[in-house]
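User: quick one, fold this
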Amino acid sequence: LAQTELDLASLDLSIQETELALKTALRNLQRDLATKRQQIALAEDNLAVLEENYNIMFERNQVGLATTLDVVEAQQSLLEGELALLNARVSYQESYRELLLMAGLI
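Assistant:
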């Protein structure tokens, strides 16, 4: 009987440790999602600046104040910004999926 009570206490402790680990992992994923939402917002802001820069370079090129190379470089920066935004969104979706899996929703 004493051994059974000891086993039950051990199982209780194990359950508590597992619950704590799950809660910690869940909080970490929630923080990760919040960080990734901020990264998406920053990438969107950066993309807006890069688009404006490209438009300025294009217009400057039209009136002879910028070279074709300037336009191409601005376009390359714009494409890199678009890629960064896509990567941020994919990263967010991966973390969101992980959270749903942990919560047992998928």
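User: anything notable?
Assistant: The first helix runs from residue 2 to 62.
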